[in-house]
Amino acid sequence: MLSALAERAGLDPVHVDDVIMGCVSQVGEQSWNIARNAVLAAGWPESVPGTSIDRQCGSSQQALHFAAAAVISGQADVVVAAGVEGMSRVPMGSSVSQGVGAPYGDKVRERYAGVEGVATELPIPFNQGVGAEMLAARWGLDRTTLDTFALESHLKAAAAIDAGAFTAEITPIAGIKTDEGVRRDSTVEKLAGLKTPFKADGVISAGNASQISDGSAALLVTTSEKARELGLTPLARVHTAVVVGSDPVVMLDGPIAATQKVLARSGLSLADIGAYEVNEAFAPVPLGWLKETGADPARMNPLGGAIALGHPLGASGARLATTLIHHMRANGIRYGLQTMCEGGGMANATILEAL
């Protein structure tokens, strides 16, 4: 990933001041600061440092925020914002510690004791699947609506692959040139037959939730002045970036508040935004976001989302930004917005401006 970034940008990595890499399950082969290990594995100079961060699903989107802040403040000139998650090799949840109270202490458990949707068994009292069921109920989203949305994600992703929309942003690995999770033969009927593991008579299934997948993504962040000095051509700029906290029980409605906050801070309206990437952790997340914001459905996840393309946790924020930037430039869109819900009840939102 880092080697491909340097090659495509035409950058000598000696100029990189830092690599900030999102990763959620920082154990096993992703432990001991995978950002620094990735720098060394890529053959970059030993002088290039790296740090790994965890804001759950928003880890690499937060890496982008930190990278932008570093170059804007003058602490650095060139920073790589990246993310990685090998979920087939480092299972989700493998970083959760064991023992009484872990990973939540008594104070957190006492605060939410008796709240609907909170489990009493160890080790984790909060469950995103349960939160997704609660969101679906809040907005009256039935199973057919969710499964139809999921099918549309697969169809849009398949069409985008066929049109070559992802070609410029993907680095082939072991001969694999496209995302493998897209199900071209899916139907609403097939999706309706899947179990609902979070609630006996529920609406959330593996079919209308994001896929467990492996992935990585990276963006090069610098200033206009440094880009000119290095002979680089900027593609977009980070216009506005925010993060919010939200209810850790429901856990998935943070993108609504994050969107409101980023628009208010940017001075833009939703009508100014030509494309939105709202991470498809579960189908009720983007559908609920649409209901609350009144946004144009045609502008949301135009190339499909995590239900079809996968959600490699720590990598997803950087991947969304990469896809959004390429889509904006290909379609003459000036402003794009990305947002995603995050474990523990948080959400990042970023407005990007094509150059």
UniProtKB/TrEMBL annotation:
Signal peptide: none
Active site annotation, chain numbering: 57 (acyl-thioester intermediate), 311 (proton acceptor), 341 (proton acceptor)
Thiolase N-terminal domain mapped to chain residues: 2-224
A Pfam cross-reference name: Thiolase_C
Similarity section: Belongs to the thiolase-like superfamily. Thiolase family.
Keyword field contains Transferase: yes
Keyword Transferase in record: yes
Domain Thiolase C-terminal, residue spans: 232-353
Molecular function GO labels: acyltransferase activity, transferring groups other than amino-acyl groups
NCBIfam families reported for this sequence: AcCoA-C-Actrans
Protein name: Acetyl-CoA acyltransferase
Keywords assigned by UniProt, alphabetized: Acyltransferase, Transferase
Gene field: fadA
